[in-house]
TrEMBL record:
GO terms for biological process: terpenoid biosynthetic process. It holds the Pfam family Terpene_synth. Residues 21-123 form the Terpene synthase N-terminal domain. This is Terpene synthase N-terminal domain-containing protein. InterPro entries: Terpene_synth_N, Terpene_synth_N_sf, Terpene_synthase-like, Terpenoid_cyclase/PrenylTrfase. It comes from Dipteronia sinensis. One of its GO terms (molecular function) is terpene synthase activity.
């Protein structure tokens, strides 16, 4: 009985799928306001990137730079500003009196130190 079952050819039922209605020409004919204004959005994004790069130059205090880097990381934009982040962290690390430069007030010392080391760890420096 076992050999009879194995010798039987099983026929697959064909699925009668309907042809796809999404033809290439149809998809290309669809438009959106974003597609029409693509150049505007590209130039706007580049301008905003330039503004953020300018913020790195404007941030003079160590705490301001660290918080800027932290905010950029939290927004998920750190991959766009890797060079600026690395340069800012290298500049902070090269300071002679780093603890004195980290902050002016004693109560901020723990916060700033923890933030600095977390950013260094995330940057893998």
């Amino acid at each position: 009985m076992k050999s009879e079952v194995c010798n039987m050819a099983s026929e697959r039922q064909s699925a009668h799928y309907k042809p796809n209605i999404w033809k290439y020409d149809f998809l290309q004919s669809l438009t959106s306001k974003y597609y029409e204004e693509e150049e505007y959005y590209r130039s706007r994004a580049e301008k905003l990137k330039g503004d953020v790069k300018h913020l790195f130059v404007e941030a003079v205090e160590v705490l301001a730079k660290l918080e800027l880097i932290d905010t950029i990381r939290k927004l998920g934009l750190s991959n766009l500003f890797e060079d600026e982040i690395r340069e800012a962290l290298d500049t902070i690390a090269s300071m002679e009196n780093i603890i004195e430069n980290l902050c002016g007030a004693e109560e901020d010392l723990l916060y700033v130190t923890a933030l600095y080391f977390r950013l260094l760890r995330q940057a893998r420096l």
